Structure formats: C-alpha cells, structure tokens
UniProtKB/TrEMBL annotation:
Keywords: DNA-binding, Transcription, Transcription regulation. Residues 1-58 form the HTH lysR-type domain. Pfam families: HTH_1, LysR_substrate. PANTHER family: HTH-TYPE TRANSCRIPTIONAL REGULATOR CYNR, TRANSCRIPTIONAL DUAL REGULATOR HCAR-RELATED. GO terms for cellular component: protein-DNA complex. CDD domains: PBP2_LTTR_substrate. This is LysR family transcriptional regulator. It comes from Actinomadura rudentiformis. The lineage of its organism: Bacteria, Bacillati, Actinomycetota, Actinomycetes, Streptosporangiales.
Length: 288
C-alpha cells in the first residue's frame, strides 16, 4: 500500500468514475485503474462496484476511503510542519524540462521567480523527451519538471498552461480559416530534424489526427524556420505563445483546436521548501 494508491482511491470516490478521477489528477486513466486494482488485490477486498457508467463504493470501500482521508490529511499536516525556510538562503532548485519547453523556464518563469528569491540557485536539467523527464524525477536528479501532461501515475501533476498549436504559412497558401485538420494531409511543412524530441511530438500529433504531410525542410535551426516559411518552402506548426515575428505571414488556428496541456510534475513525496515555493509561484503565474 502506498500514498499514491490512497490518493487515487479517494479521487475515484469523489468523482464517481475512474476517468474523471484521472482527469482531475492529470494522470493517465489506465495507470489510475491499475493502481486501484493493485490495492484491491493487496487488501483482498473489492473497493468499488460498477453502477451505470460509473462506480460506487462498497461497504468496505467506504471504510477504506474514510481511513485514507485521515492518512492523507495527516501527511499534509506533517509536510506543513516544514516551514523553517530561512528565506531560501543557500538553496538549490533543480528543474527538468523537455528541450521544447526550456525557453518557458529560462525566459519567463525563472527570471520572475529569481526576483522574489534572489538567493536561490536554479539549475535546469535539459531532457530530450517526457521519458527522460520522468526518469530525472524518479531518480532524484530533479525536484520538479516542466513537461506535457498527462504523465505516468507515479508522478504528481499540476497543470500550468493550455497551449494552442497554430499553422504559420505564407500568404500564398490558400486554406480555410480556421484550418480543418484534414488540410494537413499532404501539406508541405517545415519540420524539426528526425530524432529530436520536438519532431517526435509533432509526428505523434500528426499520427493521431491521421495526417501525412510532405516534408519541405528538416532542421533544428529554429531561428531559420520562419525564413523558410517566408520564402514559400512550406508552413510551420508551432505554439501561438512562442511566435516572435510573423510579419508577412499568416497565422491560423485549427478546427477543432490543436492544444497541449503542460504542467509541473514531481514525485509523490515531500518537496523541498524551495520547490514548494516555485510550485506555488508557477500556479499564481498561470492564473495571472
């Protein structure tokens, strides 16, 4: 039995379905279901019974959830005792990030956090993809990580921002606005090099929507991408909030919208005070 299983059981009881509980916790639904089943096998009891499209607690499940709430409240209270922070003096914060999200950390979040916590040394651990990010958290190399959601169930997730993927194209490209996803099939695109984490993300997204574009340019020289689009070589898929200069280009949304949820994640264990400070700061920044 572990705290993650208890959190999942309580969330399922609160939301009535494992799908809704997984969405509320920003974890994959199969991971949540597996953890609940493992706890049932360990205890030798059935915690939930199916009811229509959802689940309801069994009699013993109600007792388990009641005690689980007590245990989780106690853990929160114990973690709350760690308030002697010395204002971050001598602290180091290690944050892992995928390479595509690193500019979010170094250009936006960390400078603002440093103004409030000038004595904290922030070290960014660059990772190629979500698997490496998860490994950095699990092995203790990083305290927090900025990555795409959802994440595996053994990690706690805090949503930070919903990002929109847009199409940046030369004016000569004739396409409906907003752009139907089917239009990406056969479209000439400027893409990152094969083998890069950003290319893997785009390939997975295109595969999900069933589109096979024509590769016009493959390069990791991000500073040249818009130049190739201006020259008419192809269009570009990128995040709306990361576009610097689109003069002379057309930026279009998709219908249905293409979005990605990113968040800060950490292991299910007590965070160092400086990591908790950063997490609270990031949540406030996302609301602003």
């Amino acid at each position: 039995m572990n705290l993650r299983q208890l959190r999942y059981v309580v969330a399922t009881a609160d939301h009535g379905t494992m799908t809704s509980a997984a969405q509320a916790l920003y974890v994959a639904q199969p991971a949540l279901s597996r953890a609940v089943r493992e706890l049932e096998r360990e205890l030798g009891v059935e915690l939930f019974a199916r009811s229509g499209r959802g689940v309801v607690l069994t009699a013993v499940g109600e007792q388990v959830v009641r005690q689980a709430r007590v245990a989780l409240d106690a853990i929160d209270a114990i973690e709350g005792l760690s308030v002697s922070r010395a204002n971050g003096r001598g602290s180091e914060l290690r944050i892992a990030s995928t390479s595509s999200l690193e500019p979010e950390l170094t250009g936006r979040l960390i400078p603002r956090f440093a103004r409030d916590q000038p004595a904290v040394r922030v070290r960014v651990i660059r990772c190629e993809g979500r698997e490496q990010v998860a490994a950095a958290i699990r092995t203790g190399r990083a305290d927090l990580a900025l990555t795409d959601l959802p994440v595996p169930g053994d990690l706690a997730a805090h949503p930070f921002e919903q990002r929109e993927v847009v199409l940046i194209s030369p004016p000569a490209l004739k396409v409906r606005d907003p752009v139907p996803l089917s239009a990406l099939d056969g479209m000439r695109l400027v893409l990152p090099s094969r083998g890069s984490s950003r290319r893997a993300e785009l390939d997975a997204m295109l595969e999900r929507i069933g589109a096979t574009p024509v590769v016009a340019v493959e390069s990791d020289e991000r500073g040249s991408w818009l130049g190739w689009v201006r020259s008419g070589m192809g269009s570009l898929l990128w995040y709306r909030n990361q576009i610097d200069d689109t003069e002379g280009l057309v930026v279009r949304s998709f219908m249905p919208p293409l979005t990605k949820l990113i968040g800060l994640v950490h292991a299910h264990r007590q965070l160092p005070p400086v990591a908790r400070d950063f997490l609270a700061f990031a949540k406030e920044a996302s609301r602003g």
